[in-house]
Amino acid sequence: MAEHNNQQNKTESWLALVIGNTRLHWGYFYQGNLLDTWHTPHLTQASLRQFQQARFQTDDRELIQPSEVWIASVVPDQLSLWLPSTTKERTTTVDESAVDEPNVYVIDRSRISLNNLYPTLGIDRAINLLGAGQISGWPTLVIDSGTALTFTAGSEETGNPSIHGGAILPGLRLQYESLAQKTASLGAHMPEAPAPVLPKRWATDTAGAIASGVTYSFIATVVDYLASWWQQFPHGKALLTGGDAPLLHHYLQQKTPEVASRVLINSELMFYGMQVYRNELMLF
Q: Which long-range contacts (CB under 8 A, 24 or more apart) does 119-126 make?
């Protein structure tokens, strides 16, 4: 009986893995609930096995080793670590039999339940939007402030969620890095990291001028896209996600508090999007 219960628990636990450009994003689900999230650097083949064994030993949360790992990836080399030649890539059929190793399932773009999903749209953007629609309803705009700053909008057409459009530009830290790497004299004056408070707009030193230019132009871009979004959809939702989402929201609170009050922060959109995808696939 104990063995049966353990196997049943394993089938009710699964892991969502979103492979981003700079980090891995993990979400642990049990009985339909997101219990834990964490982030790690990219893995090597050697560190993958070590990571799995270390992570799923009983700890303070007593995580049960998942029977499934569902992966959305924008980095092919990282994805390939999970799909050795002896492992069949599964995208459509779920095998719920008990196994020692988690079954690996890769997000299939053609099965994401969003209309107008154009071929080059990043899987991470689609999954974030799917999660945002599940949490907040439609229409909704996802602003992902990470390595890149992306805007991904979705609305509902004839009862079906649909891609409305979006935009991509360098993220906050990438803008600093670009100035440091592509200019002859600014690198020595580069701020170490974005400050938690708004910089002085009219700076009297080079480091301050860089902080001012990057920060205020970044905020202005976000506010401009939000204004356009709410002009088209006055009651549309807007959600911030990504590593720099708290910092960006803090800037908005300082600069445009009325805008900030209409924008929600949710760092777990990607995982809820993965849950929507998995649940829909398991219906078939």
A: 121/152, 121/163, 121/166, 122/74, 122/150, 123/72, 123/73, 123/74, 124/18, 124/20, 124/72, 124/74, 124/270, 125/150, 125/152, 125/166, 126/152, 126/163, 126/273
- Same-domain check for residues 45 and 89: yes
182-206 pLDDT, tens per residue? 776 676 666 766 888 999 999 998 8
Point out the residues that are catalytic: 124
- Closest of 128, 208, 196 to residue 166, by C-alpha: 128
Backbone angles phi, psi at 168, to 5 degrees: -135, 135
pLDDT digits (tens, 9 = 90+) for 246-272: 999 999 999 999 999 999 999 999 999
| Residue 229 shares a structural domain with residue 92 | no
Tell me, what DSSP letter sits at residue 188?
A: G
280 is a domain residue: no
- Do 52 and 85 have their domain in common? yes
Q: Is 158 strand, coil or helix?
A: coil
Angstrom distance (rounded) from CA 269 to CA 72: 13
Do 132 and 85 share a domain, yes or no?
A: no
> Model confidence over 14-53: pLDDT tens digits?
999 999 888 889 999 999 999 999 888 888 877 776 665 5
Residue 133 makes CB contacts below 8 A (sequence gap 6+) with 140, 154, 161
The answer on pLDDT for 92 being more than 60 is no
Bridge partners of 16, per DSSP, are: 27, 70
160-170 vs 148-157, strand pairing mode: antiparallel
pLDDT for position 188? 65
**Average pLDDT of the residues in 218-247:** 97
